[in-house]
Amino acid sequence: MLRLAAFVLVLLALSGAPAAATPVLVPQAPRSIPLSPSGQASPAALELLGGSVLQELNRARAARGLLPLRSARSLAVSARRHSAQMGRRGFFAHESADGTPFWQRIERFYVDDGFRSWEVGENIFWQSPAGLAAISVVRSWLASPGHRANILSGSWREVGVGAVSLPSAPGVYRGSPVTIVTVDFGERRR
Length: 190
Description:
Helix content is 31%, strand content 25%. By secondary structure, the chain is α+β, with helices and mostly antiparallel strands. Strands 1-4-6-5-3-2 form a six-stranded mixed beta sheet. Helix 1 crosses helix 4. It is globular, with a radius of gyration of 16 Å. The relative contact order is 0.28.
């Protein structure tokens, strides 16, 4: 079973400092992420999955003449923490467990201070980890109008990917093994 959701928000900012963004080169990913006997992906496999998702996002963008997204550490931290919270607390939503809107959560990491404009968006996805591959995550998003709009937006310049894997997750995951992927998109202008 897989689930996905997308959101986008545009805000005007008042002041702040830039965060570093660097291009990321990743090796070609395996067809699916390797799992331990408990059904959980290793940290190295999750890192490879995240890099491969970014590679697939940029491949889809390049096919449509769009600039590649640069990896932003602050967005990756936000995305990873949200994926982990959803898995631990057993929910699947852009809002945090306490009801905080996604853009406020992202803003704690991807500060809007000092920028004339600040814009963020988010795609989320979950699936039983068996057979999960970056290309299937991105293809699922491309088949959904809201997710597709986020991926193919000419506004985005930076992205953070956060993937987590749990051998048993509560709530909406019904105690099953799960891999959750969050992608936070961002763009800030001075």
